[in-house]
Design goal:
The protein contains 15 helices and five strands. It is mainly alpha-helical. The chain has a single domain, classed as HUPs (Rossmann fold), CATH 3.40.50.
């Protein structure tokens, strides 16, 4: 991490606040040994008792990427639960992601439900966000994924939601300036879509983060479980295991299961705003001993994808969104803005995040 995070702080040793937060807050409370395994198995038994008369014990949002795929493996093979695999098709799946999902469904012997987002509405919202000129271009996909999952879980009264969120590969969270907005803000979505959208979002799923955190979790009693924080989760080892057991195929980098996210993180964000999310991704691996700083610096010195491929992806994204290449280029060349240029609930969401940190339910460093 460097000063492209404008609020980064280094101590007298040259250690930044991300590293210090890991050492003082995350590491002492992160148990991937027998203690973590015992806690996970105890939780599994509790879940089994509560759901013995139901078709499924829990639900897992599955993208085909590493974190959700390995979570499915842990939940089925280590915890012994009966999860429903839940996939949201927002129109940007890579063939590799689809193949990985099919392999896990067959290999684990689990049921899959796929929610398909209305493409016309998805497209309209994504173009509106692009025209808004803010860095947070993955918010529409995040809204589709998480809102669909929560709404489905509520409808069918599935209490336990499994997520691939973890400390091993995500302990260094990308800062807000890089498009790391704190959560799904319905007020922000509505203002951006009102300003730039062209069609009503009649069916698009959109739940506010305060709704999921307060109403769904605190009132309805829905629980979000992160099993990868209770078992050894080393990126390469997990990839090797999924590959050997199910023929699962690893991605070149994190989030490459979505073609839009790959384009956004490898082209749009670094070239338009100067932010490289790989810095945060690699920093997490450095902090947890899975990558050397030297290897990370060498890899980040060049784009993840070659120039010809990135130019092809630029054309693909433009065509899929019903924009000409010239129109997308014009948006790209436009004046950069931030969420602060639109109506939002950032202060309220930020207050909620700080409360979660103070009571120990959130240990990652946010800003």
């Amino acid at each position: 991490m460097d000063t492209s995070d404008p609020h980064i702080v280094f101590d007298e040793r040259g250690h930044c606040d991300y590293c210090n937060n890991f050492e003082t807050t995350i590491k002492p409370n992160w148990h991937t040994d027998q203690k973590g395994l015992d806690a996970l198995k105890s939780l599994a038994e509790k879940i089994k008792k509560e759901t013995k008369n139901k078709d499924f014990d829990c639900i897992i949002g599955l993208s085909g990427g590493l974190d959700s795929s390995y979570s499915a493996y842990i939940v089925k093979e280590v915890m012994g639960l009966r999860p429903l695999l839940f996939h949201v098709d927002a129109g940007w799946n890579t063939d590799q992601a689809v193949g990985n999902i099919e392999k896990l469904v067959d290999g684990l012997g689990l049921d899959l439900y796929t929610e398909v987002i209305n493409w016309q509405e998805m497209k309209d919202l994504q173009v509106a966000f692009l025209r808004s000129q803010i860095p947070d271009q993955d918010l529409p996909q995040d809204a589709a994924f998480f809102s669909s999952l929560y709404k489905f879980s509520r409808k069918y009264k599935i209490k336990y939601v499994i997520t691939g969120s973890n400390y091993s590969t995500e302990c260094c969270r990308e800062p807000e300036e890089w498009g790391g907005y704190l959560g799904l803000d319905k007020k922000l979505f509505k203002d951006i879509h009102k300003s730039f959208g062209k069609r009503p979002l009649d069916t698009f799923p959109l739940l506010d983060i305060l709704t999921t955190k307060v109403f769904y979790q605190k009132i309805l009693g829905m629980r979000v479980i992160m099993p990868l924080n209770s078992v050894p989760f080393v990126k390469k080892d997990a990839e090797d295991k999924l590959e050997s057991l199910y023929g699962w195929q690893r991605f070149k980098h994190k989030h490459h299961e979505s073609r839009f996210t790959r384009f956004y993180e490898d082209y749009w964000l670094p070239r338009k705003f100067g932010y490289h999310k790989r810095r945060a991704h690699f920093s997490s691996l450095i902090i947890t001993g899975q990558m050397t700083r030297e290897a990370a610096l060498e890899r980040i010195a060049t784009p993840e994808m070659d120039e010809h491929f990135l130019q092809q992806e630029f054309e693909y994204v433009a065509n899929k969104l019903d924009l000409t290449v010239e129109e997308l280029q014009e948006i790209f060349n436009g004046e950069n803005k931030t969420y602060r240029d639109y109506k939002n609930k950032r202060k309220l969401i930020g207050l909620g995040t700080q409360i979660l940190r103070k009571i120990g339910l959130e240990k990652r460093f946010f800003r």
